Amino acid sequence: MKLTFENKTALVTGAGRGIGRAIAESLAAEGVRVICVSKSESSCGAAAEAIRASGGQAEALAVDVADSAAVAAACEQLLKDYECIDIVVNNAGITRDGLLLRMSDADWMDVINTNLSSCFFWTKGLLRPMTRKRWGRIINISSVVGIIGNPGQANYGAAKAGMIGFTKSTAREVASRNITVNVVAPGFIETDMTNELSDTVKTEAAKMVPLKRFGQTSEIASMCTFLASEEAGYITGQTFSVDGGMAM
Amino acid sequence: MSDKSIEERVQEIIVNQLNVNEEQVTPQASFLDDLGADSLDLVELVMAFEEEFKDEIKGEIPESDSEKLQTVGDVVSYIKDKAAG
């Protein structure tokens, strides 16, 4: 299938590496201008540079997505530079794992702010021009953990489930403006985040996956790119599990 | 300061935001019933008024006030009251 993107600009958070970077590259390969956001200048800079090196259009933007004021300022500047950000992919995420009984308030708040509050900050900051333009795509990257849970990730699970509720309410609010809001919920994907797991955990994890393997970042990116395209215009408020069948 | 009257500036915003004709924007016209606005339009209108009339309103229009702004005339007199006070 040929996907259609007419003169679109996208913003992808957490684009420095892993799933976010794959999404940024996939959109850029379709001719979308991509703004690669990450906390560290060098990380988003490298991602944008790699996209430009392969012939795509990309800019880097270093922002802490958990910082409401910083995101608001970034959005204001972006809308001066670009008029409208048509596609927003809220992908930035962190983990601070630990059993609930030993989880600190800081570990709870950091994960909620970076994974969940960031969706609110960016979506709020970039929504108005989309409503005027009567076109928009918002894609929130949740997790299988937000659907089926995982011991040691009460904070992460809460944030990722929260993204699903956020998505459904927002989807209903903006549907009349031809803006779609969807969730992609990856399972175990080969990234730096999952590389931190021990081999034993990885082997055990793969056993829980009906397709018996970890996924590739490109397998998440292809779903996101489809949802961002013109062709996905009749899909909103949905959660798409791309997890080898873990949640079914 | 703009040379245009408050009425003209309010009318201009409504015409742009709701894609209606100037003639439709009468003082009695109701946003929801006569000008085809929905709830999202109302929020955007209030934000546009706050932006345009920041010198007059001196801050944001609170929810308790914005829900009373049902007609074009309501908005004009609200802004005039704020500017006077």
UniProtKB/TrEMBL annotation, chain B:
One Pfam family recorded for the sequence: PP-binding
GO biological process: lipid A biosynthetic process
Residues with O-(pantetheine 4'-phosphoryl)serine modification: S39
Coiled-coil regions, chain positions: none
Ranges where the Carrier domain occurs: 4-83
Keywords: Cytoplasm, Fatty acid biosynthesis, Fatty acid metabolism, Lipid biosynthesis, Lipid metabolism, Phosphopantetheine, Phosphoprotein
Statement: the UniProt record of this protein carries the keyword Cytoplasm: yes
GO cellular component, one term: cytosol
Transmembrane segments: none
Compartments reported by the entry: Cytoplasm
PTM entry text: 4'-phosphopantetheine is transferred from CoA to a specific serine of apo-ACP by AcpS. This modification is essential for activity because fatty acids are bound in thioester linkage to the sulfhydryl of the prosthetic group. 4'-phosphopantetheine is transferred from CoA to a specific serine of apo-ACP by acpS.
GO molecular function (one): acyl carrier activity
Protein function: Carrier of the growing fatty acid chain in fatty acid biosynthesis.
Protein name: Acyl carrier protein
Organism: Cerasicoccus arenae
Higher taxonomy: Bacteria, Pseudomonadati, Verrucomicrobiota, Opitutia, Puniceicoccales
Gene label: acpP
